[in-house]
Amino acid sequence: MQISSKPKLLLFNFAETDGGAERTTAYLADFFLKNGWDVSILSAQTMDFWRKYGLDPTKIKYYFYPQKKFGFFPETYYHTKQEIRKTAQLFKQIKPDLILALKHNASILSVLAQKLYHLPTKIITSPRGPSIEGIRLFFPEKKWRWYFFTYLFTRFSRGLIAPTKGLAEEHRKFFGGKNVYYVYNGIDLQTIIEEAGQAKTDPNLAFFWCGRLSPEKNLLMVLKVFKRFKYRNKHKLYIIGQGNEENTLKQFVKKNNLHKRVIFLGFQKKPWQFLKEENIFIHSALLEGFGYSIVEAMACKMVVIAQNCPYGPKEILENKWGLLYHCEEELLNYLQVLIENKEIRKYWSEKARQRAKVFSKERMCEGYLKILNQILNYG
């Protein structure tokens, strides 16, 4: 395959959710454009969706992935075959040198389209969340189908880039990956530091939770713990985010008379504007590919407490930059100790900012550039 002097990169992300993978896609698109690459995005969202991440529609080539059902799931042989054909047709139209497919669904389709239709482009896959635990949680009745497709995209892509070391090792060990790399996600550190805490909230010490309101984020457990928290009448819990579990969570809050202490702020484009130094950030996900919200909170010098789940929180915090808990009782104990001891809060606050500096978006983008150049020229 002949590579042009201006490499053509296609970022393929269905963008079913508004989360970390979408942030990564936008950061990479902007970075590679500035470095002289020809960058396109293939997505099931409109360009307006990507504009809110700061992407300029006059500079980015955008291609829409038409769908009757949002996202791709290999439900039936006929449906899967149709989607593979559609993906191959789009790839033939775009003619990229490299395709970076983010998340499992785009990774599956990209590798199968490339192999079955003998396309010359090189595929780099990038699962964004734990494969084994994610498949068990989301697709228990179809787990072997998902394991098979995950094996295919791991084994037959030119390279796989994971957002954590643990996820990279999972794909090497369980799915036969060879050219497997990991690059930690990155944040816009300077902007977050400058804008942290600008939004008005209760001036008293408070708790914050940020993420998608869906079962795997495990917010209901946090609300149950907060209900038992003996200082709850003095401190508020702020919830940043939206999702399909929002009504259930609000009903729980109302039923347990917590509506004056638990405040739902909805989706926020810049959640760090609510996050304040030495306040306490709770991360409760059952699994997490990386955990952007954790690093953003650490950049704001918040004390971070996170569920010890695969893989991001464990690697970010390491139990020396923030606190990892294993059960409800441990979380409850941490909350009470932190509220009662200002010196402990100050210690973890300083450690958090120190650790956050490791996760810059510049370092992340440079890591991707190194790998993509290697695959483009030698892979």
Compact summary:
By secondary structure, the protein is of the alpha/beta class. The protein has helices at 20-34, 47-51, 77-94, 104-116, 131-138, 143-156, 165-173, 189-195, 219-228, 246-255, 292-299, 312-317, 328-340, 342-356, 361-378, and strands at 8-12, 38-43, 61-64, 98-102, 122-126, 159-162, 180-182, 207-210, 237-240, 262-266, 280-283, 303-307, 323-325.
What does this protein look like?
With 379 residues, this protein is an alpha/beta fold. Helix content is 45%, strand content 15%. It has 15 helices and 13 strands. Strands 3-2-1-4-5-6-7 form a 7-stranded parallel beta sheet, sandwiched between helices. Strands 10-9-8-11-12-13 form a 6-stranded parallel beta sheet, with helices on both faces. Helix 1 crosses helix 15, helix 5 runs antiparallel to helix 6 and helix 9 crosses helix 13. It starts with 7 loop residues before the first strand and ends with a helix. The mean pLDDT is 93.
Key features of this structure:
six-stranded parallel β-sheet, Rossmann fold, 15 helices, 2 domains, alpha/beta, 379 residues, seven-stranded parallel β-sheet
List the helices and strands and how they pair.
Elements (H helix, E strand, L loop, with lengths): L7 E5 L7 H15 L3 E6 L3 H5 L9 E4 L12 H18 L3 E5 L1 H13 L5 E5 L4 H8 L4 H14 L2 E4 L2 H9 L6 E3 L6 H7 L11 E4 L8 H10 L8 E4 L5 H10 L6 E5 L13 E4 L8 H8 L3 E5 L4 H6 L5 E3 L2 H13 L1 H15 L4 H18 L1
Parallel strand pairs: 1-2, 1-4, 2-3, 4-5, 5-6, 6-7, 8-9, 8-11, 9-10, 11-12, 12-13
Helix pairs in contact: 1-15, 3-4, 4-6, 5-6, 9-13, 11-14
